[in-house]
Amino acid sequence: MDTSIFHQFKDIETKEIAPGFFSKLIHTPTNTINFIEVKAGCSVPRHQHIHQQCSFVIEGKFELTVNDIPQVLEPGLFAVIPSEVWHSGTAITDCKLIDIFSPVREDYRNL
Q1: Tens digit of pLDDT for each residue in 5-37?
Q2: Which of 2, 15, 16, 105 sits CB 3.0–4.6 Å from 32 for a disulfide?
């Protein structure tokens, strides 16, 4: 197996990037992929960043607020958040999420 291409997901260290947000992070030259497990009731405060962010719910319900407009995301509904747009979120239930950031989240790479 070519280990420069193929990797074991189980080998990625889980990091708590915010209270109740447990992430496995993959960094490529152009993006960061964040596989997140979030405990019900946990939230990330209103913030913005230079990265475009695509957010997907794999399991559960997550309320994502973008430009002060809340929307409940469930499997099948996803968001594409442009760069520098204000957003926040709260897990309504225990959730599994995937966020894709472009460009790379250097702040996450340094965790």
Answers
A1: 999 999 999 999 999 999 999 999 999 999 999
A2: 105
